[in-house]
Amino acid sequence: MSYLTDREIHVIGIQRTGQHAITSWLIGHFEKVCYKNSMSQLGMKKHDKGVQPPFWYFEPSIRDDWEVSEEQIKLDQDAIILGTEFKVYEVGLNPNINSQKQEITKDLGVDLFSKSQDYVLVIRNPYNHYASVLNWQRNKQLSPVKDFSEMWKKMAKECLEDTNCLPGPKTVVKYDDWFSSKEYRENLSKSLCLDHTDRRLNTVMKIGVGRSWGSSFDGMKKKDEAQSMSVLSRWEKAKDDPRFIKLAEDEELVALASRLGWEKPL
Length: 266
Hints:
Elements (H helix, E strand, L loop, with lengths): L2 E12 L4 H9 L5 E4 L9 E2 L2 E2 L3 E4 L7 E4 L7 E10 L10 H12 L3 E12 L2 H10 L9 H15 L10 E5 H6 L1 H10 L43 H4 L3 H6 L3 H9 L7
Parallel strand pairs: 1-7, 1-8, 2-7, 8-9
Antiparallel strand pairs: 2-5, 3-4, 5-6
Helix pairs in contact: 4-9
């Protein structure tokens, strides 16, 4: 049985939840890895030659740069990491992903896309998360309080196993704990059967629309100093915003956040 890669890792989260930081950290666990930024709910773009989406190939000797290609995915990778950002009220992967992987597999002449799949579900303290959404100027889709709260609650229920929408075993990553605790990161590496490393912990990925860099608060001022960003206190900037105040009055959201260990800051 031939595989395109031994490890297929899906990193799944709502926009501005910190999934790119966690993806960057995961990439540091491998020498040869291929990463696709957005396996969107709408599916990958079709090209004349079939399913040929842009992939960003990590170059270990540079550590924060990418070889960008719209050609076929590279063979002989230690892992392929696929990102999904939720933009609709559903927890799950792009429904077309299996057919897309099958087409790539057929084109490259292997039996299966991967030997094993991991689903990494990233969730963030909703108060800091919503503050980042409100500060983000590019996409207004999440800024209405109802839209954000409904999506975050869907994610929380999946993390708490109140629902089970993903196609396989999942690893839940609480972004705030991952950011602040080395022990948490070590245990996470262990749970994914990886030799722990923090070598890319401070690397802010150059990725996304137009391959823009960084945080909605810090831009690229913290390009190589991700751990110095004040991501655990973003809510302070938004605390007087009527939308933020309304979010904090959502009793279901507050209860779900509390079950995950996050109390209302007000």
